[in-house]
Each structure stands twice: as structure tokens, then as C-alpha cells.
Specification:
homodimer; about 350 residues; 11 helices; alpha/beta
Chain lengths: ~350, ~350
């Protein structure tokens, strides 16, 4: 059977002041769709497999969040990690849980907080991927045609040949490159051989277990060759011994049976205000507005106003204006990296005020 | 005895979104002092006369506001006008009320929503004014040395001679000019004969009644020669028959016994965000900040953030950032006249949303 694993353990504060450690991006309606990113991802997965075959892995502290946002989940569908150790343990934990129920399962692993455009194509691509891994002992990654030399994404280089003679959008992977400098990213794009790594992986459980056994034996031992998984206290002890390792570093960059299916859907990891701006619909003056905002002589702004508040904005060009959780932020779009400083300044102030 | 009349009937929306029709400026802590403007004015008056000699005239709809902000007032101390008809009926109403208690009273009439700096000098000036009108049958206005060619103030031209040979800061008034064009205002200042009209008047009840009888006989008839004042329903009928007339137009510009005492205190009518900016203390980058705000690369801004909100502002120069009553406003300081449009756009939207 097909199973979906949704990775929902992010603690990102890049969307501060909207996202905060106790309520990170996947639990927010960043896109202004009326659904949180997790809810949208769940709904998308429910078109690929039975609802009860969707497993969400998150941090222990967010398990309640998940249950609040997605009603009616069975215990095996929400897994809380006691510690953050990267995507490799996260996927192993989900895979081990699924292995106990369906040892021959096909797994679609997706992040909980990315944006997908043209969902019909997404479904088609994923069905093709599932079909492929059910016939061939491969690990499939999904690659997205890059539209600009982004330096915040991972890039997948495809081999020149097709993986299968009759299939055009499937190639063996040559290299993975995480967050290249812009000049390198430009060369990547010019070559026509590189794709953005969408963080979506499709593989069967036997292939997955084989990969862990070969490349991440400690994790394999812990999750697939022991009964240490329960009780939860044992899990915490187990996790505390793991190194932090991503699935890309731990397996994709090591394994020789990784193929890339070049996606036909639109995608963004929506990791930053700037990427949200880029994927948002905008008015004729380039303003991407969520919530009630009146703009005058205002251009190229990203405006995010919560329900119950009205904004009146005059004479701004290229700013982020966001208000949430008792904080108003006004910041030039090109100075978004200041957000970490903003957040820490405000946090420090709040700490001092409490004393 | 000395009495103070505080005119608190303004409905101004120039400080939108802070001030709104149901909570205008005099009831707000616009200056960030911890007291509303009315409270500050009341406290100032209480140094000039007994507390129970302070009479506040406001709109009917604001009578409760006054009682909430100034505790322990007797009925004669809060007068609600049923309609807005300008300062001439307002002062007549207060004067008639006081006349019933103290026919020989000396009245100090002050607006409720102006800022006074150097309060000791204010007290000295007012004591001098009281002393003068108790010896001479004059109407005294207070004139403030202009510091710039403001086009939003009234100007008082003084005669060249002193009113009294031994007193330097007291002159007969030659002309009143309301809101002159900037070129005229420049000439006024250059001449050295013009002062800003602070809207503060000092006179005895007999002189006041004489002035109303001569220049505003309808108001004199209504307030000083009848018993129509009560009940309240009669007052509404009465007011509905009045023309709207200011004390400046109705009496000051007509009477020949008006003198100006040139004030030694600092003053602003704080009628606009810009005038608030001008009278506010600022940080080394020219930011006038009320509330919790962190600024980065930000200059010459006026920032007004309510309790419970923190603002983080990066890269603004010369803006007003104000949030209140569920509305966030960001607007260049030099575009402040847009506020009326903002307010009406937001109001219209709220009306439509309700339907």
C-alpha cells in the first residue's frame, strides 16, 4: 500500500513575528488559504493514499498542535520525536512504525510546510513515482525546474541518460549540492542539468531499510533491528545518542540507486518572507496582501495583517509589514536577515520585563 | 473667586487612528505622559482655583468620559452640550452656570487638549491675567510668541503701545487673523507684532456678560436673561436655534476692550501628528517614540504603539507609525493630510462589512 510521511518537526522562526518557536510555520496559514500548511499538506496526501496511511512526525511539543489541526487521527499517525536529530532519524521512525503494519509499503515522504502549485500535476508526478519504485529498487527524489539561481535551496544534478529508455522525466542522480553560492547556482541553471531538491522522496520500505542498513547502520539498528521503539522513555534515550543527520547527507548523497523525477508542478519551500512574496498573488502595484489593508502610493510590499486589524499603509516601497502575536514588524524586504536580530531583541526585552 | 472653564467638546479625528469620534483627543494620552490631555488640563487648572470651581463643558455624549477621567465632580462641574455650536455658546453656557453661583467670578477659559510647557510660567502668566482683569474691564487673551510661520493657528496682532505703562507684556489687540497663508504668516513673524492665539481667555463675569449682550445678543438673551437653561430638553431646543459661532469671531474680533498678554510659557495646540512630533522628546535619530518600539536604521519617525504591543521598525525615515483601535497606520509625516481619506476609507469598509 501507499503511505505518506509528513515531516512536521520544523521550529523555524524565519516568519517571525508570525511563526514563533511554540507555533512554527507548518501550523500557520502562511499562504492565506484558510488552511495551515500542515492541513494543506495532509489534504494533498489524502489524495494519494488512504487517510489512515498518513503518518505525521513532529516534535513531542507539537503533538497536540497536530491533533488540533487534523482531527480524528489514530495513535500510529502522529509520532512525536523527543529530540531534533535531522530528517534521517525522523524518516526512520516513521518507516519503522509503518513497517510494523505494512512491511512492503511504498512511502512518499513530504515536508509539511512547502507550497505546491498545480496540484493535479503533483498527483500525476507522485503516482508516476510510486509506480516506478514499485517496479525498480530505486530511491526517487523529486526535482523542480529552477526559475532563479536561489542560494537557499539544495540542487540535484541529473545524469545525461534517462533512467528508463521510454521515460523522459526520470534520470539517475549525479550530485547533490546544498545551498551553492550564487555564481555556482547560475552555472547550474545554465547547464540545464540541475533541479531544486523539493525534499520529497519516494521509495519502498525494503529499499529504504536497505539504504539505512548500508549508509546509516546506527539508525538501522535502532529502528529496524530492535524493539527499542517503545516505551517513549527508551526513544528519548535512543535519540540522545544519535548524531544529527539529514536524509540528503545520510543517504541520498551516498546511495547509488537515487533517481530524480523532474516535477511538472510548481513548488516553493516558502522558507522566507521573500519566497512567500514570490509565490503570492499581487495587486497591480506588486503588493502581496493578506488581511485587511488599504494601500496608498505603496508598491512591492508584503503585508500580513491578522483578522480584526485593519492596516492603512501609505508611501512604502518594498517593505514587509507583518503583525502577529502582539508584535508589529516593518522591515525592507531586502533586509529580511535582520529578523533574527529583531526576534532576539524583543525576546530579551520580554525577559527583562518579566524580572 | 477664580473659576476655570475647560472646553472639552472637540470631536477631532486628526489623530486617527488613535482619536476617533467616540474617543477624541482630549480623552487620550496623546503626549504619553500617563495622563489624558483633559486630566492634565484639569490638574493645571486646580493650581489656579479651587477644584470645585472648575467647570468642564463637553458634548452630551462625552459626559460619562469626563466623569470616568476626573473623579468626584459635582453636577455643575460637567456641562453637556446637546449640539455643537462653536465656542461662543459653550463659554456662555459655562458662564451662565457659574453666574448662578458666583456672579462676580473671574473666568479663565482654556481648551482641554493643548500642551503647555513650563507650567510654572503658565501659572504666573494666568495669575497676572487674573489680577489685570480684576482691576480693568478688559477681555484678556493669551498670545504665544510664534516659532514658525504656522498656517494652522490664529494670529493676534498687538498694538504698539502697552496697555498699562508699567507692564511690558500687555497690549491692546489690533487684529485677529485665522489661519493665514504661509507668506502672510512669515510677514507676521517678521513684523514682531503677531502672536499665536492660544485660545485662552480671562475675564470677569460682568465684562463677559456685557460682551455677549453687545456682540452676541441672541446668546446673551438665551443664557443670561432667561431661565431656559433647565430642563435639558429646553437646552436642546435652544441650541438648535443657535448659529455656530466661535468666541473669536463672535466677540474677540468685535470688541474694543480685548488685550493680549504675551505668554512666557511654551504652547502647542497639538492638533496634528506633526505638531505632536514637534513637541515630543526624540532620540538621537529624531524618533519620537511612545510605547515599546525597537528601531533600526530609522530616523525622524513618530511612533505610537499601545501597551501590549511591541514594534520592530527597520529602514523608515520620516514616517508616522501608529496603531490603535484595531488599526495600524503607516504614513509619511508630510502626507498627514491623507488621514481623513484613510479614516473614511476604513469607515466605509467597516460599514460594508457589517451589511
Amino acid at each position: 500500500m501507499i503511505w505518506c510521511v509528513i515531516m512536521a518537526g520544523g521550529v523555524g522562526s524565519r516568519f517571525w513575528p508570525l511563526s514563533q518557536t511554540d507555533n512554527p510555520k507548518q501550523f500557520l496559514d502562511i499562504m492565506g488559504t484558510g488552511r495551515t500548511m500542515l492541513q494543506t499538506t495532509f489534504r494533498r496526501c489524502a489524495e494519494l493514499c488512504p487517510r489512515e496511511n498518513i503518518v505525521i512526525v513532529t516534535g513531542d511539543q507539537y503533538v497536540d498542535h497536530v491533533h488540533e489541526q487534523i482531527g480524528d487521527l489514530q495513535p500510529h499517525q502522529v509520532l512525536g520525536e523527543p529530540l531534533r536529530r535531522g530528517t534521517a532519524p525522523c524518516i526512520a521512525y516513521a518507516a519503522a512504525t509503518i513497517a510494523g503494519l505494512d512491511p512492503e509499503a511504498t512511502l512518499i515522504v513530504v515536508p509539511s510546510d512547502h507550497a505546491i502549485f498545480r496540484e493535479e500535476r503533483f498527483k500525476d508526478d507522485l503516482r508516476q513515482a510510486v509506480d516506478t519504485v514499485q517496479r525498480h529498487p530505486w530511491i526517487l527524489t523529486l526535482g523542480v525546474q529552477p526559475v532563479n539561481p536561489a542560494t537557499t535551496y539544495g540542487y540535484i544534478q541529473r545524469g545525461k541518460k534517462n533512467s528508463l529508455p521510454e521515460v523522459k522525466n526520470l534520470h539517475p542522480v549525479t550530485t547533490f549540492t546544498e545551498k551553492p553560492p550564487v555564481e555556482m547556482a547560475r552555472q547550474f541553471i545554465a547547464s540545464g542539468e540541475f533541479y531544486w531538491n523539493a525534499g520529497i522522496f519516494v521509495w519502498t520500505l525494503p529499499v529504504l531499510q536497505e539504504a539505512y542498513k548500508k549508509h546509516l547502520p546506527t539508525l538501522w539498528e535502532a529502528f529496524f533491528n530492535s524493539t527499542l521503539l517503545t516505551p517513549h522513555s527508551a526513544l528519548e534515550q535512543l535519540y540522545s545518542q544519535f548524531d544529527t543527520v539529514s536524509i540528503d547527507q545520510g543517504i541520498m548523497e551516498q546511495a547509488s540507486n537515487v533517481h530524480v523525477l523532474t516535477a511538472s508542478f510548481g513548488w516553493s519551500d516558502v522558507e522566507t518572507w521573500e519566497s512567500l512574496y514570490n509565490v503570492s498573488s499581487r495587486d497591480s502595484r506588486g503588493n502581496a496582501i493578506q488581511g485587511d489593508a488599504f494601500t496608498y502610493d505603496t508598491r512591492n510590499c508584503l503585508i500580513d495583517i491578522p483578522d480584526g486589524t485593519t492596516a492603512v499603509i501609505d508611501g512604502l516601497d518594498g517593505y514587509i509589514v507583518a503583525t502577529a502575536n502582539g508584535t508589529l514588524m516593518i522591515c525592507p524586504r531586502h533586509r529580511e536577515e535582520m529578523i533574527f536580530r529583531f526576534a532576539s531583541d524583543v525576546e530579551l526585552k520580554q525577559l527583562i520585563d518579566k524580572k
